[in-house]
What we know:
- By secondary structure, the protein is of the alpha+beta class.
- It has helices at residues 76-79, 151-163, 182-200, and strands spanning 26-33, 39-43, 50-55, 65-68, 87-88, 94-98, 108-122, 125-126, 129-134, 174-181.
- It has one domain (3-200): Inorganic pyrophosphatase (Inorganic Pyrophosphatase, Alpha-Beta Complex), CATH 3.90.80.10.
- It contains three helices and ten strands.
- The longest helix has 19 residues, at 182-200.
- The radius of gyration is 16 Å and the shape is globular.
Amino acid sequence: MSKKEFLINRPHPWHGITTGDLSPKVVTAYVEITANEVIKYEICKKTGYLKVDRPQRFSSVPGTLYGFIPQTYSAEKTAALSSQATKGDGDPLDICILSELPIEKSDIIMDVRIIGGIRLIDSNEVDDKLIAVLNGDPYFKNAQDIKDINPVVIDRMKHYFLTYKTLPHEPAKTKIENIYGAEEAHKVIIAGQADYRNHFL
């Protein structure tokens, strides 16, 4: 390995890691939260370190690995794909990752294959939750689209995102505009990359 093939310093997970050469079909994902995590961790946008955001206030916990796609941003072009949102949520694109075997460590990167997504609307902002499988996982080798995943798994994701911000006495804070497959998910990633370039480069 030559000096050109490795980094001396750790890059910022959002800005210093590329989306990947096979994007939008296979992308690099950064994992913030593991499945069933009761503490919500998220990237510190300034430092790039993983920080504690808050303990989960609700009984709903994420059923999959959860993180984001580096060098993406939810803004004008991402919002334009929605029929209901007025703007993007101003964060990198979120991603839920399915793996047959448990991965119990966060603050890691992995190559994942995009199969679909959930178009979530939160306070009139689009907050897409892309869905992917761990690339190279033999259990999911035939999963190329969201229709290839058991609907029960998708229903659990939908329930989580519809309840994860709402206490029983409160009105719902989120709603699902639609569930989409790989083709639309690829468009979301391309839009998110364009938004990133427009706002950061």
